Amino acid sequence: VLHRTDDYLRQVLQKAAESAYTWVVQVKKMKAIYHILNLCSFDVTNKCLIAEVWCPVSDLANLRGALEKGSRKGDATVPSFVNRIPSSDTPPTLLRSNKLTTGFQSIVEAYGVGDYREVSPGRFREAPSLFIWHRLESAWHFRQKFCVYLLFLPELLFLLCLFGYLVFMILYKWLAFSARNSSQAPSILIHFINMFVMQGKDLTPLYPGQVCDGSIGS
Question: What's the Cα-to-Cα distance from 40 to each of 27, 48, 116, rounded to whole Å?
Answer without folding.
Answer: 20, 10, 25
